[in-house]
């Protein structure tokens, strides 16, 4: 696919397009046809193909002009079932079963179509186009008119693997300490999910969270993570009773019905005082439905749970959220922190963010602290808490017990 086609696909996947299909349509014997039709005839053929295919599509479907490889891309959002993409492809093939008239020539158009689906075959534009292209290659080489992408075409774990991982408890939780810069004590840990797949190895959280969201498993993943995090955190609290837990809420989990009840039930189940739970939300999460998110965060905040605005400064509308939501903490994005010691501009930005937090009565937490001098600078700037590889990497609960950063944390006696 060319850049314009990929761009259109990216836009489609970035929106709320549900299950999507991608058809890559190849015209067989293109060169022979081009030679026969001449330049004017070739252009007429392009227009005819485009118009006839477009007529067969639903509102909202999109046909992209062929790239240099000569393939049309058809994007099908909001498919009701897996079979609908195949049906659309078959409709197109049937349309060209009889010869058509192009610029005075009678031409038999012979097409091959490769089909791939999101999330069944891939969840991002690059993966989906690769899957459709491999399917198309199989059709062209195998003399078939239509081929569907196969799971074996794909680089990395898929929906079914995640479903299996959730059932089989393949996922794990690690905890990254947060240091109170005034006392030098670890006062909280952020729970971060991990997935080690037997074949694919470590899968990045961003990747499996997106997979879960596309596959309708976001609720399942939140339920699993919340319980895994609070269960292991309860063990940690036996030794460090005042240790707080930060938990990430993914954008799609916001829309889940019953999320508030689920969180409150988990607090009761693991006997965690609400003030020791901090829910980290990003503006993308809140953007999906600001009214509902505001209401939901208000309910949780009223129950005593803390709300942290994660990745602060990375997006465009962070300030809007400060106006509307009951936030108690700003997490300064690591983008501004990683190179703090060497970047004057970052220092000015971070200092302003800390001041802003304090003006609003919020706690400022810097993430991505990788160097000792960054920690010193943040302390001098009056930042409240810090988190990063210099203090500790995300650790398994048993590793936390032996880690030097936990030494001055208040223990039960
Ligand atoms: P995040 O919430 O911003 O988490 C911080 C990420 O920065 C973590 O990556 C952490 O390992 C990494 N990190 C911590 N200290 C440093 C540092 O000093 N330098 C650098 N370069 N990186 C550092 P991780 O664990 O890969 O998580 C990535 C993102 O995935 C998280 O970003 C969060 O948005 C999401 N995520 C992770 N676990 C969960 C989960 O259980 N549920 C949800 N909804 N999202 C999760
Ligand atoms: Ca976070
Ligand atoms: Ca963050």
Mean pLDDT: 91
Low-confidence stretches: none
Number of helices: 15
Shape: elongated
What percent of the residues sit in helical stretches (DSSP H or I)? Answer: 40-55%
Oligomer: single chain
Strands, total number:
16
Structural class based on helices, strands and sheet pairing: alpha/beta
General description of the model:
This protein has 413 residues and is α/β, with parallel strands linked by helices. The strands form 3 sheets. The protein has an 8-stranded mixed barrel, surrounded by 4 helices. The protein has a 5-stranded mixed sheet with strand order 2-3-1-6-7, with helices on both faces. Helix 8 links the parallel strand 11 and strand 12. The model has no long low-confidence stretch (mean pLDDT 91). One calcium ion binds next to strand 13. The site of ligand C2E has 22 residues, from strand 9, helix 6 and strand 13.
Topology of this structure?
Elements: H1 3-14, E1 20-27, H2 30-55, E2 62-64, E3 72-76, H3 83-95, E4 100-102, E5 105-107, E6 111-118, H4 125-142, E7 146-148, H5 159-167, E8 171-180, E9 186-197, E10 201-203, H6 205-214, H7 218-239, E11 244-248, H8 259-269, E12 277-281, H9 283-287, H10 290-302, E13 306-312, H11 318-324, E14 329-332, H12 334-337, H13 344-359, E15 363-367, H14 372-381, E16 385-387, H15 397-402
Parallel strand pairs: 6-7, 9-11, 11-12, 12-13, 13-14, 14-15, 15-16
Antiparallel strand pairs: 1-3, 1-6, 2-3, 4-5, 8-9, 8-16, 9-10
Helix pairs in contact: 6-7, 7-8
């Amino acid at each position: 696919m060319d850049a314009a086609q990929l761009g259109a696909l990216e836009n489609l996947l970035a929106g709320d397009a549900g299950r999507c299909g991608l058809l890559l349509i190849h015209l067989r014997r293109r060169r022979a046809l081009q030679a026969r039709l001449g330049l004017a005839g070739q252009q007429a053929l392009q227009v005819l193909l485009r118009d006839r295919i477009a007529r067969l599509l639903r509102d909202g479907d999109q046909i992209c002009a062929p790239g240099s490889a000569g393939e049309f891309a058809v994007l099908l959002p909001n498919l009701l079932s897996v079979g609908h993409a195949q049906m659309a492809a078959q409709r197109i093939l049937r349309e060209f079963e009889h010869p058509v008239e192009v610029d005075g020539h009678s031409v038999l158009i012979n097409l091959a179509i490769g089909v791939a689906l999101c999330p069944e075959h891939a969840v991002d534009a690059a993966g989906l186009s690769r899957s459709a292209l491999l399917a198309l290659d199989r059709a062209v080489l195998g003399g078939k008119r239509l081929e569907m992408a196969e799971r074996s075409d794909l680089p990395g774990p898929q929906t079914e693997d995640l479903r299996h991982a959730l059932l089989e408890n393949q996922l794990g939780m690690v905890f990254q300490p947060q240091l109170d810069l005034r006392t030098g004590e670890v006062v909280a840990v952020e729970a971060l999910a991990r997935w080690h797949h037997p074949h694919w190895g470590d899968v990045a959280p961003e990747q499996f969270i997106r997979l879960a969201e596309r596959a309708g498993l976001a609720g399942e993943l939140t339920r699993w993570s919340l319980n895994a995090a609070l269960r292991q955190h309860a063990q940690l609290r036996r030794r460090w009773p005042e240790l707080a837990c930060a938990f990430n809420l993914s954008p799609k989990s916001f829309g889940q019905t019953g999320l508030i009840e689920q969180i409150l039930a988990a607090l009761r189940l693991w006997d965690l005082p609400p003030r020791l739970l901090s829910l980290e939300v990003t503006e993308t999460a809140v953007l999906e439905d600001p009214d509902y998110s505001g209401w939901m965060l208000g309910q949780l905040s009223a129950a005593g749970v803390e709300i942290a605005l994660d990745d602060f400064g990375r997006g465009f509308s962070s300030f809007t959220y400060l106006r509307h939501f009951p936030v108690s903490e700003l997490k300064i994005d690591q983008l501004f922190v990683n190179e703090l010691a060497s970047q004057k501009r970052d220092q000015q930005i971070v200092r302003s963010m800390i001041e802003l937090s304090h003006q609003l009565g919020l706690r400022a937490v810097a993430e991505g602290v990788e160097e000792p001098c960054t920690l010193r600078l943040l302390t001098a700037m009056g930042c409240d808490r810090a988190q990063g590889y210099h203090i500790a990497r995300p650790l398994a609960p048993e590793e936390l017990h032996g880690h030097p950063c936990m030494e001055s944390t208040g223990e039960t006696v």
